[in-house]
# Entry
Amino acid sequence: MDMNSIPGLAPGCRLHPTQDVLLIPEGTLKLNGPTRDILTRLDGRRSVTAIVDDLLQGYSGANDDEVRRDVLGLLERLEQRGVVRT
Amino acid sequence: MMTPNDTSNPPLASPLSLIAELTHRCPLHCLYCSNPIEMQRAEDELSTEDWKRVFQQAAQLGVLHLHLTGGEPLARKDLPELITAARDAGLYVNMITSGVGMTEDRLSTLVEAGLEHLQLSFQDLDETSANHIAGTRAHAIKLALVPVLKRFRLAFTVNLVVHRMNLDRLEDFIALAEDLGPDRLEIAHVQYYGWALKNRSLLMPTEEQVHRSLPIVEAAKERLKGKIHLESVFPDYFGSFPKACVGGWGRQMMLIDPIGQALPCHSAAVIPNLFFDNVRQHDLAWIWQASPAFQRFRGDAWMSETCLECPRKERDFGGCRCQAFMLTGDADAIDPVCSYSPHHELLQTLRKPSPELLPIWRGRASSEEVPVSQPCR
# Structure
């Protein structure tokens, strides 16, 4: 996964409509902090860069590099767990 | 929400998952079948409307995951309708299937209805042995189904059920699963409940087999990281402390059997003097909160002094009640898997290799395969 990758949720994974959890096969992942904001932007069309740009519009005063690193790090961890695919 | 009688215990949380045993009809006759020895009859099964009501009540109660199982769920002609109803209610829908009776058209209908995750089990890597364990010719059908599954957008889990007859081939068995390319891989040791208990002496692995298998599983986990998510269930007969069976009695899940009885776990019916309330008479929230069967081992009031004083009770909730009963004859006893149990030596004996016995298949009057549409008796 890099900034040009186009991530999406893996089959069988979806955000719970009201609770802060990601429903996955045989379980749930709790969504902390801005995770939900990131995951709702995974549409299988936008790159990580585009997702970060979109997020930054909503976070005034955020450090761009930090956000980039955090988003990429989170998506990589979720990819390792098998719930995000590129 | 109501709290259990014992006020020293925390307030009752919602169940997270509902296991719907849609039917006990099954084209397979696995030696390790976990269904009860006395199966429910097809004519007594819940109706479509009953199940729809149950799914709505489950979602309202806070259940997130629905596991459609059986028997073989495909034996229910109303399966697509049930899946639609479950999704409309807001549940995540998983189905555990033998694959026998599945076609591309049927699968397409199920996915369209909202099926999100499908689990397919394999009995061995070699066809003759796999069919022997399943008690029918299913292996080739399962293999042929995999490329079809992959044309659809749904999560796919391969379950490898392991025991003495196939554990020595675990490395190759995992390689087969890897070739099938699932999203998830579960390696589960047989649990000795229901029918499986009849074949325990035949299926129980040796201690040596279990110890050889552990590094193989760990290596596969590492190797498949990021590719296939691997989960394994250690056979608790070989442990020193009990498992948190079903996440604790009446804590996380409920099971509805084909005729509507609500059980705290798959095999709770083995425990004497438990009456299971039925979804035909009560709604799920009432059953969860007040049904005596669910209250029976909730909290710690029933526990022995040993367990009450043990900090592990917060983790294992006293282990498995069915196992305690099946091995000691007392459902309140300390789970014998626990090294603090006075019956722990029973496990030592069971772990020793026993003479090979003949397999006992369930409901197999002849070598003929039972069509999915027919009740299997």
